[in-house]
Amino acid sequence: xEVDAICGAFFFARRKAILSVQINKYEIxxxxxxxxxxxxxxxxxxxxxxxxxVYLPQFIAYHGRGWKKRELVSHPVKEMSAxxxxxxxxxxxxPVRIIYSFLKLIGVKLFDI
Length: 113
Known about the structure:
The chain is mostly helical. Helix content is 47%, strand content 0%. The chain is globular, with a radius of gyration of 15 Å. The chain starts with 14 loop residues before the first helix and ends with a helix.
């Protein structure tokens, strides 16, 4: 099934696809994200370049990030994730998502949601 984005924890891609969207000679992931959402940014760049992203349900991966209990995630980590989500939506130039992610960042900063 075709999807809009793939988690970087279990991301396979053709070399040709990756090379077609690399930022410079040695940068595949946008280093300005540092952590969180860089895999979504790569997915967006691949889709924009005409590549298909496919989910195969028979493949199973376990990702130990530990976000199931959001209240246990530190404030700086939540803030970094929200900030990177806003950066991603600004790059995508999607006004609805920009507003959503901006409000989410404010919520994290003010109320630690």
